[in-house]
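Before relying on records like the one below, remember that each one covers exactly one chain. Contacts with other chains, cofactors or solvent are not represented anywhere in the record.
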Amino acid sequence: MFQRLFGRERHANRAITEALYGQIVAAARQTFFYSDWNVPDMPLGRFEMLSLHMFLFQHRLHGESGVAADVAQVLIDEFFTDVDHSLRELGISDVGVPKRMKKLAKMYYGRTAAYADALERNDAGDLGAALGRNVRPDVAEWPEAAALATYVMRARDELAAQPTATICAGTVVFPAAAG
């Protein structure tokens, strides 16, 4: 037991978690989203893209059991820990962080339900509408929503083709947004 908590296995698991989370963050930070598809390059826009990529990762592992389910849980925990840390870096007080975290968690899970529903029906129109409502609520119409919906569907398909064992070993590959 002691060896599992403090030994090599714990360090290997942390390395896998960091590798996967880093790949998710890198996918969410593709400059194309912000420069060409007009995702707001500000904290809320970056939260939306990170949430979207975390959703895609979680969607890929949904229904898996064993190690894959454990990896999915560890990564969602890592995501919310990162969001908490980011709020604190933005200067939100210790008193205000829990309230904001509750709101952001509600936002995340609301989005995942809408995105999952549209993906299950393979409905690019509904997916684009949901993305538009969430990523660019400040504009009446966001023409780039359709392109982002196409990207999300392509990412879903490419993630589905990746072996679970490869993902659980620390490698997940998202498509390039500009492709």
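The chain has one domain: 1-169.
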